[in-house]
Amino acid sequence: MTDLPLSAAQTILDATLTEARRLNLKPLALVVLDGRGAVKAAVAEDGTSLKRFEVAHGKAYGALALGIGSRAIGKRAVEQPTFVAAVSHVVGGALVPVPGGVLARAGDGQVVAAIGVSGDTSDNDEACAKAGIEAAGLTADTG
Amino acid sequence: MTDLPLSAAQTILDATLTEARRLNLKPLALVVLDGRGAVKAAVAEDGTSLKRFEVAHGKAYGALALGIGSRAIGKRAVEQPTFVAAVSHVVGGALVPVPGGVLARAGDGQVVAAIGVSGDTSDNDEACAKAGIEAAGLTADTG
Amino acid sequence: MTDLPLSAAQTILDATLTEARRLNLKPLALVVLDGRGAVKAAVAEDGTSLKRFEVAHGKAYGALALGIGSRAIGKRAVEQPTFVAAVSHVVGGALVPVPGGVLARAGDGQVVAAIGVSGDTSDNDEACAKAGIEAAGLTADTG
Amino acid sequence: MTDLPLSAAQTILDATLTEARRLNLKPLALVVLDGRGAVKAAVAEDGTSLKRFEVAHGKAYGALALGIGSRAIGKRAVEQPTFVAAVSHVVGGALVPVPGGVLARAGDGQVVAAIGVSGDTSDNDEACAKAGIEAAGLTADTG
């Protein structure tokens, strides 16, 4: 696994927030996990609800857990709800199956990070995450 | 976040119970959480079932977690059951997606508390919560 | 089990708070559990820390769980720490082995409630709980 | 409770990291929680071990839970190990009783945030947290 440096994580967060403010979204919580699932960087804008960080985290962690973006996990949750419920249990609850958990891949295709965003509609959350990842020169995999 | 004083929480509880007795509802459990999700005040009327407090708590806590009244969480649970199940897991189970978990907003729109009520129909539970919040001069946001 | 009416629970809370203010203690969280371990009434004074309710609850719940006041559980924790750790696990964490969790017994000796208090020193917490229980005409069993 | 704005949380993180690099410490994980216990901002320097974020989080969360810095919780853990183990259980495990979890108080004494730092010695972790809090014009309460 290529390590994601903190400087890249901060670029992702900054660009995600810039996009969120450009789109005038509701206050967001964002988290960047490295390839191990460890929190690399996170911020919550002013006015976020009590558990926004945990929701954002669950989007990103679920994506890493299964190796697919949380949009794809959401599709699978419609087709196979008990599978997704079971995996949610397996990972201790940290799996939120709606768009906004996006994998970041390096040039060789390896997953180096996942970003989770929550606070506006899931589609808007995901659009910001994608913008953040691309600003760091990585490829966004929404699932 | 403005602090919710205990005196205001007690006003909310008293007015909620008064409304419940006026409507001759079944015995209720009620809980007021402050903006941090901490229990500020709670009562269970005589005759409530074993886990009424936990149900009332889950309505209020879920509302704070996502920043919307539990009625709106219930609507989302119909559209996206796995999302709501996942968030329930994320918050440790304390999320009950039916009406009766109502946010209390101050004049500037900020959430300063949430009240959860359980024991009668969800609509009746919510009506009492709303009456309680308004008696304290706050705005009820049912979702 | 004799039921503890809400009116008695409120008498306990009011008298506990009156004693706390007379002694000029730090802000307290208090909870009255009925004989089933259900929350009957609770309040948190202004200025309590984030998890004071949970600590007060764990004192009361542990007392009910083992049928002895939390002071006695604390003594046992010194003699047999692994026993108390194991029971804590068995009850899902809701056991705090220091004074302040006091059983309320009716005239026939039956346990009808437990009160948990947290916020000042454990000895002061317990003194207030005792005053509250006696104000309701019940016998306090501190362990 | 006064809200901690994101800009203040970022000032705390930046100043904490600056102090850590000035002292040439091992790689740190840092987290700023707001008064609700919600993650407001976090970073992990390059080279931190797998669960450094969780350790830092537990220092800060424990401090908020009990309303005292994690240094004081550590002293209590020596005197009353079962009490601290029990509270750790009560708060879902998020309590790490060594220095490095520091409360940030506003001018009126109210707790507006807690910062947790982990990665070097606990004393060094705490020194950085203190520098970060003071850079934001708040008062550090180490316990």
UniProtKB/TrEMBL annotation, chains A, B, C, D:
InterPro entries under this entry? GlcG_carb_metab_protein, PduO/GlcC-like, PduO/GlcC-like_sf
Q: Which residues form a coiled coil?
A: none
Which top-rank group of organisms is this from? Bacteria
Q: Which Pfam families match?
A: HbpS-like
Query: Gene3D superfamilies in the record, alphabetically?
Result: Haem-degrading domain
> What is the recorded name of this protein?
GlcG protein
